[in-house]
Amino acid sequence: MGKYIGKRLLQAVIILLGVSVIVFALVNFIPGDPYSGMYSPDIPTEEIEAKLDELGANDPIPIQYVKWLGRALTGDLGYSIWYKEPVISVILGRLGNTALLACSSILVSTLLGITVGIYSARHRKGLVDNVSTVMAFTALSIPSFFFGMILIKIFGVDLQILPISGMVTVGKESITGAARALDIARHMVLPTVVLGLMNAATMLRYTRSSMVDIQGMDFIRTARAKGLPERKVIYKHALKNALSQIITVLSLQIPGLLSGSLLTETVFLWPGVGRLNFEAVNHRDYPLIMGIVLILASFTLIANLIADISYAAIDPRVLQNDGKG
Amino acid sequence: MAEHEIFFEIKDLVVKFGRPGRAFPVVKGVNLSLERGKVLGLVGESGCGKSVTMLSSMGLLPQNNCEVSGSILFDGQDLMKVAPKDFQKIRGKRISMVFQEPMTSLNPVFTIGNQLEEMLAQHEGLKGKANKDKCLELLSLVSIPDPESVYDYYPFKLSGGMRQRVMIAMALACDPELLIADEPTTALDVTTQAQIIELFKDLQHKLHTSIVFISHDLGVIGEISDHIAVLYAGYVMEECGVKTLFQNPLHPYTFGLMSSRMGRTLKNKDKLYSIPGIVPSAENMPAGCPFAPRCARAGERCANAVPPLREVEPGHKVRCWEVAGHE
Hints:
The complex is a heterodimer of chains A (325) and B (327).
Chain A: H1 2-29, H2 45-55, H3 61-73, H4 87-122, H5 127-141, H6 144-158, H7 177-215, H8 218-225, H9 230-258, H10 262-267, H11 273-282, H12 286-314, H13 317-324
Helix pairs in contact in A: 1-12, 4-5, 4-7, 4-9, 4-12, 5-7, 6-7, 7-9, 8-9, 9-12, 11-12
Chain B: E1 6-17, E2 24-35, E3 39-43, H1 50-58, E4 66-74, E5 77-78, H2 84-90, E6 95-98, H3 102-105, H4 112-124, H5 128-141, H6 147-151, H7 160-172, E7 178-182, H8 190-207, E8 210-215, H9 218-224, E9 227-232, E10 235-241, H10 242-247, H11 252-261, H12 300-304, E11 310-313, E12 316-318
Parallel strand pairs in B: 3-8, 3-9, 6-7, 7-8
Antiparallel strand pairs in B: 1-2, 1-4, 4-5, 9-10, 10-12, 11-12
Helix pairs in contact in B: 4-5, 5-7
């Protein structure tokens, strides 16, 4: 197991290095000088050149890359041109908000997707199965921003029971404690519903199909022949076999949510990473873009690493086959 | 306990598969009975209803696309009328089953120990050390070398033969009164097959468990059974004691089965006999005797009416118009 984790970890580090090269190269291929917007036009060119030399902007590209990587490793991702503060603190300021939304929507999608998925698999062609299938495909076909706007129209504008955007009510920024938590929770409802339902649809389809497959397996018949209660047959024997499938879906969804759902966050004006990314591109804030991409790539790799480790923990054959391959 | 007590009896079992109204019968009125401590062999080609008959005794047929009627009496209780909750207490505890496919019948993500242990915990309430001791005892009972290690193995570490031993250990875990062995040796190579058959014979000797042994191999069946029923296309074609069957097989189908296994040895290079034709499918069942299209002795009557199962001599029943005794 230790060897297996070590191998996966090494792979992740190598991939991350590759990502950093690509990110750095892409930004450096863009013509122009990212600092050009930062100084006033009446400063003499020699002074600008001297400053750029000092900053290392005129160094050969590989040297610049090594310097940038060295700084990145110490947590220094550069200085945001638009926000005029270090990239890392800009991102960290938004990451919490995104994580909050990600957690609540993952909770909704996982609970809903897995329970309904298992139920539909057990009662195939039943009412719940048919209704949930139609709803899942509807959720998957509607674009998230459109779904979000419909919810805003119904619950925010017509019924006026939920706030339509932002994270705290304007004018109530100074409240603290439970009142603030409640205010944020109210703002979270709609974006959570949008993200939660969309991810639940995927989770449901995957859970259902893998549970349907597994239910026809010989070892499930064995479990029944052993006289185990149905609950144990399904939730122990079948579900553990379906878990790898569920983890695969989760490992794809979690980085997606942490990278901030650009559209959903924009529609609901949620101050998260997704919207930050959108703003960074709008403002051509290269250091910020690089920082965000690098951090999101790390999340994806970490999620994959955790998924790989979970596969091995669930199914010992993974370790066995890894040794051979 | 009476000496010849019949404690397991299948009466007029009919199993149909398919949608209601368009269901095809797969088992067509099977009657079987078993005395305590005896071995009943069911033999027949693939698809003749052997497994379906016994799966219905376990209540393990898929519920959504099959209809079952008739009665299955087990120790005075009609299993067809038992509530699902109560059936759970019988399955694995009083009736257990060994399946045909040892490679896929164990759950790949749980250890052997766990899969044995949960059964003892479920039916016997055994916990902790008492449970583990019993598991190890069972693993040694089925001659698994080094049970201590195997207890912690996942199934992928074991060969087919070893896995089948584990399945047998599992089936024997709660001292069942009836053990159903559904072609337990079919998926194994010949030497392993012989070992598993030896194991069954040995266990039957030691534990006096009543067994229903399903196989398509007359040799295997002949070695282990006291009584044999030959099934074809959902009917019992011939039923008698094992000696009678081998000395005096009456049904042309049984004859065919016998001829298909004897003959080819190193000295005798004759071509292996096989019964011409194939088993008719459930959709295209002939009106008369289902074996008639493949039978050399079939007459006119055979094509029109299904012969009844008749006792032609004491303890020897045959379903055939052409066997003496029909007028």
